[in-house]
Specification:
single chain; 229 residues; alpha/beta; Rossmann fold; 5 strands; 36% helix
Length: 229
């Protein structure tokens, strides 16, 4: 394991992918700072999951930043009158896409990294088993990395930022295997887009379906409670 002792800011939603990404950064020896965006999302229970992950990974500082994207709307995750799809993924970008979310979130992550003097940022995006979101693509990560140097004083002074997406080319089952290898409790991470009473996961949204299928494929233990089971 590397012992870089460099600072890194991890974008931590509280979901499975962000948990594994943060744990991989910890394993690589980074001094971690966690940023969670409270964007008034339908599934705000994931913020509590982020707190639990921070405690588990012993991250020294965790900023939960309020940013009310319900003011903009445009997504089933920020508008109660748009239903979260329960029939599986389709060919089109789903209504759970939040306009430019990862661009906005990574910009905030970069801002904090620059303030800390950190040159490394981690994000848990995935381009294989995902819902077709454009801001999860490798082209987006590469483009933002270039933009980071153009948009910052640190970049103008000659420093180069690294945007790490360690799960980029993993299938969801590989991510579950990585969580098991890292001895992470899968139930600590929240995936469901449409929480049910008692903070149970719906089990039927695209995110739940991907997670349940991957856990079953791996044969991993996941104590997440689903309302439809």
């Amino acid at each position: 394991m590397s012992t870089t002792s460099r600072k890194a800011v991890v974008l931590l939603s509280g979901g499975l992918d962000s948990m594994v990404s943060a744990a991989m950064a910890r394993e690589a020896g980074y001094e971690l700072y966690a940023l969670t965006i409270d964007y008034n999302q339908r599934h705000r229970v994931e913020i509590d999951a982020a707190r639990a992950i921070v405690a588990r990974l012993n991250i020294g500082r965790h900023v939960i930043l309020p940013l009310d994207l319900r003011q903009f709307g445009g997504s089933a995750l920020t508008e109660d009158n748009i239903a979260v799809p329960k029939g599986g993924g389709g060919a089109d970008i789903p209504v759970t896409y939040v306009p430019a979310r990862n661009l906005v979130f990574l910009s905030l992550t970069l801002a904090w990294a620059e303030a800390l003097g950190a040159l490394d940022v981690f994000i848990g995006v995935n381009a294989l088993d995902y819902s077709g979101y454009p801001d999860c693509r490798p082209e987006f990560i590469a483009g933002f990395t270039n933009l980071a140097s153009l948009a910052t004083k640190a970049g103008a002074d000659g420093s180069s930022f690294s945007v790490h997406a360690p799960l980029q080319y993993m299938h969801k089952s590989d991510i579950v295997r990585e969580a098991v290898r890292l001895k992470l409790d899968l139930a600590m991470a929240w995936s469901c887009y449409d929480p049910q009473p008692g903070n149970q996961a719906c089990g039927l949204c695209d995110s739940c379906r991907l997670r349940r299928a991957a856990v079953a494929e791996v044969g991993a233990q996941d104590q997440t409670i689903y309302s439809m089971s």
